[in-house]
Amino acid sequence: VSAFSDPQTGASGGRPLPVNSDRDFIGYCVNLLWRMHHRMALRSPKLGEMIAFRRLMSSIPRESAVDEASIEAIVRQHGLKLRYIPEAGIINKGPETFRDFVKQRRRIQNGHLWLMKHQNYQVVSQNKGTLLSILKEEIMANPTDLPRLAGAVLLEIYCRLLGSWDYYVKGKNPFTWDISSSTKKIKA
Description:
Helix content is 48%, strand content 13%. With 188 residues, the protein is an alpha+beta fold. Strands 2-1-3 form a 3-stranded mixed β-sheet, covered by helices on one side. Helix 3 packs across helix 5 (146-169). The chain is globular, with a radius of gyration of 16 Å. The two termini are 30 Å apart. The mean pLDDT is 93.
């Protein structure tokens, strides 16, 4: 909340920290995704999971499947800044199953395409140059994980292709979606 002492700050968010173990492939993908989002957000704030924002709208667009990204767009359209607060850790739970991972990533890709068309906003994770740069950083930081990283990249490409197919070919908008149930099971 201290970020709002700057009147130019329109929204802020912390760093999601998944509780998923990275010992299995999907857990690795979840952890990789949030590590990459952290690296992206350090360059260009990308907010997700839990954010605070100034009330600049009467409501979040109902048709958006990516509410935090829609808020980012509104904040930017008002000429305000996004602030990433990496010290503010947000414990979250990513998908545990292949099916839930694909379901979630497919919906998010579709939502980002909707956002580009309807709110004229591209999230930083859709920028191919940024993605390649961040991927290179990940390879340098964790060279022994290259085989799993390659698999995760192929899985993300697959999910993005499915989300793009849903959006462009099927005309689908997943603004209401099936919950990825494995994201809701917390082990005590």
